[in-house]
Structures are given as structure tokens and as C-alpha cells.
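G., the chain you wanted modeled:
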Amino acid sequence: MRIWNRQKAAIIFDFDKTLSPYYMQRPLFEDYKINEREFWEIIANTSKKMEGDFLHELIYLNSLISFNQSITNHDLKIDKDYLTSIGSKIDLFPGVLDFFRHLGKIQDLEVYIISSGLKEVIEGTPLNRYCDHIFACSFNYDYNGICGVSNVVSTREKACIIDYISRGSNALGFDYYPEDDTDRRIPIDKMIYVGDGVTDIPAFNIVSKNGGVSIGVFNPNEPAGRSQLEMIKEDGKINRIFEADYRANSNLYKYFNLEIESILDSLVYSNLNELPFNKEAVKYHLSRVPGFVHSWTKVNGE
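Predicted structure as C-alpha cells:
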């Protein structure tokens, strides 16, 4: 028996270098006079000397905690309010905010962000209100601000979270394992994943190999990013590569809308088993994406 009355579609984004041209920790580094390049070099070198699924993320999170502990002025401690506040300072690629507003108007389409960055920072961006859920690293807090790691999202964990969303476990609030793919709340072939590079490979892979759409985006000011994506595409893990320009006249925006339309149209058939098959019901489904004319408008020859 299917647990869901109807299935949904989803578009899932990485954050750093996908929606924003730089790492979200940059405003923090600027405020506390931390050399950004040196910080990440130390994290990378330390990670190489050790082994483990979460080590890179744990190392950078614990490095921030150690730095916070070294601050003697209590008023300058890194706390949750501070991290949320710097979200408003994050620059986004052209058109990102308007594109998220557009996605928020589309029925049966859910929007997620999966990031190894900081959840509190993403929640402080204007994108937060248009997301169904944000999966990212987070801290525990005490009187002195950040004091421990609450949650870690690693490169491998991104693929696990996509499966978790697909199964509907996040909607139910517990780990649900469907008997078959027909009882997935959001089938993976009804997903679009957007990322920028090697840290997204597990996510690209799980989506593309299960019939979904994987899109790589790059900063035009960083040619190495495109080259990296081209190599990933050669391995069959990415469907298309675009410049990270989300404005309405861009090729990326147009491709998004074509794929969203196709996915939502395909949902009509899977959801019709749960709805009366009549002309009005089908019209309702086919009118969900504003501004589009669908390829067929007749039902049962009418």
C-alpha cells in the first residue's frame, strides 16, 4: 500500500560555488581578520594526513570552535545570532534570488539545499524562506557561543540525504523505508541536483544513475571550475554544464524550466492513480508551472 497520496518533485542545490561565488565563511573570516586562504590550506593539509568520512568537515568546524574559545572578549564570541546575521552579507550569483522566488510559485516542486557549509549562515540568507529544508553542518551553543559540533554534512552524506528526502523520511520525521520505488515520496528520477564540482560527485551520481537530472554550474571567473566539471561529465555523472547565471534570459534558467516542466508533466501520470481521472483534474496538473504551454491539452480525445 502506498503511504503517499501523491508524489512530488524536487530541485536540490549545493551552496558554496553553486549559489554563491565563494565560501560562506568569508564574512566571518573578514570580521575576525582570519586569512581565508591559509585557513583552508591548513584544513586541507590536516585532512590529507588523516582518514575518515567526515574529517574535512569536522576539522574546519572544530577549528572554528577552537578559535572561538581563544576569544577573550565575550561580546565578540561567535554565537548563533552572529552566524545567522552574516547570511545577509553573502553574495549570490546573478538571478539566484529571483529564481528561488520563481521556484516557490511552482506547485508540487520542493526546494532543498544540501551543503557542507553552515546551516545557521544559510538560514540568514534571503533564500531561506523559499526552501523546504536546509541540510548543512551546525553547532551546539552555550553561554560562550559555539562549543561543539551538532551536525555534519560530508561529501558522501549528500547522497544519503538525497535518498532520505526521496523516501519521505524528512516529511514523516522518522526513517521510512518504502517497499518499492512507487512508494517514494519524491522519486529520484523526479529530482534535479545542482552542484559545482568534485564534492558533489556522490550527489551527481545518485541522481543521474537513477534517472534524475544533474547539472554542473561554474563561475566564469574561475576557468578551472569548468574544466573540473567537464571531467566529471565525461564519467557520465552530469547531464549538462552551465555558467552560474540564474537570470531569466540565461541558458541555465531556460534549461531548468524545460526540465521542471518535463518532470511535473510526468508526475501527472503517476498521481492520476490517486485522483479522479477527469478533464478538470488533468488541467489542474498541467497548469502548475506559470507561463508554460504544454505539449498536449486534450484528454480522452476531447
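The domain at 9-270 is CATH 3.40.50.1000 (Rossmann fold).

Shout if anything looks off.
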